[in-house]
Design goal:
CATH architecture of the largest domain: 3-Layer(bab) Sandwich
Largest sheet: 6 strands, antiparallel
Radius of gyration: 23 Å
CATH superfamily of the largest domain: Hsp33 domain
Helix content: 25-40%
Order of helices and strands: EEHHEEEHEEHEEHHHHHEEEHHEEH
Mean pLDDT: 87
Low-confidence stretches: 296-304
Structural class: alpha+beta
Strand content: 25-35%
CATH topology of the largest domain: Hsp33 domain
């Protein structure tokens, strides 16, 4: 294996003789870019980093062309957390909080709430799953969700540092996929034993190891008795999906009377993207153009 430290990468790996697959994620510049937009308290920053690692790992479990959003809504100090990844590896995230956010379990941080996982394809199709906030962490809640809803034993291990976020994900292969890759051999009969052994080894992973070691070295240290195949890494980056055109569509949907009212009160219409701090400003002429977009000239008009 080539000893290479990966930055802003999602890496899939497989066990050549086991019915288990895995993923590793490393967020570096993308993470610091997201942090630079807001001054988050330490406890909020930790939850945001955990969620970014989780949604990135989740994005490799489902084939989609579009966006995946993981959102946590709660009644506690951390009111809302939203992270998004596109199928091309663009990441963004945002958290909103009130007062002091403790570094505690899910109930301490979010209070009563829920987690939503939404996939929106480019063709407009939309799928959503609701995940109960159970356990001490988002990783635990996701482990329970996969076991209960997908009947697939899964394990998330998520780590947050000041300038780096990392995560390890393991999952048992579905029955049909196991049959295609391993056949009907002894490995299928030892499924539970293999899973317990691999997750026990994964549980020995320390935070300093995942941040300091290359993916190749880390997998070798953890699973040195297994044959592990590391696949081509996928690049990740911070990028916001906001645009002036999207803001314009939102304004048009508000209706002309509402836009005119804002103009009378404020003089201009200002829209800020909380994800990237991009500012959009619309004056009276802009609103005129929006409200009458697509209207052609009256019959017999002279165009100058």
């Amino acid at each position: 294996m080539t000893d290479l430290i990966h930055h802003d990468k999602l890496l899939r790996f497989s066990f050549d003789k086991l019915d288990i697959r895995g993923e590793l994620v490393y967020l570096d510049d993308s993470w610091t870019s997201i942090l630079s937009r807001h001054n988050y308290p330490d406890a909020v920053r930790k939850q945001l980093g955990v969620a970014l690692a989780a949604v990135t790992l989740l994005s490799a479990t489902v084939k989609f062309d579009g966006t995946m959003i993981l959102q946590v809504q709660g009644k506690g100090p951390l009111r809302s957390l939203v992270v998004q990844i596109t199928s091309t590896g663009d990441l963004r995230g945002l958290a909103r909080w009130e007062g002091i956010v403790p570094d505690g379990n899910l109930m301490d941080v979010f209070g009563e709430g829920r987690m939503l996982i939404t996939i929106t394809k480019r063709n407009g199709e939309r799928y959503q799953s609701i995940v109960a906030l159970e356990g001490d962490s988002l990783a635990t809640a996701l482990n329970v969700y996969f076991l209960q809803s997908e009947q697939l034993p899964s394990r998330f291990q998520l780590y947050v540092h000041a300038d780096r976020v990392s995560g390890l994900f393991l999952q048992a292969l579905p029955t049909t996929e196991r049959s295609q890759t391993l056949g009907q051999g002894p490995a299928l009969r030892d499924r539970e034993e293999n899973w317990n052994r691999i997750t026990l080894l994964a549980g020995t992973l320390a935070e300093n190891e995942i941040f300091a070691l290359s993916a190749e070295r880390l997998l070798l240290n953890l699973f040195h008795e297994e044959e592990v195949h590391l696949h081509t890494p996928k690049p990740l980056r911070f990028a916001c999906t906001c645009s002036r055109a999207k803001v314009e569509r939102t304004l048009i949907a508000m209706g002309e009377p509402e836009l005119r009212s804002i103009l009378r009160d404020e003089g201009t219409i200002k829209v800020d993207c909380e994800f990237c701090n991009q500012h959009y400003t619309f004056d009276a002429a802009d609103v005129d153009a929006l409200c009458h977009a697509g209207e052609g000239p009256a019959p017999g008009s002279v165009l100058h």
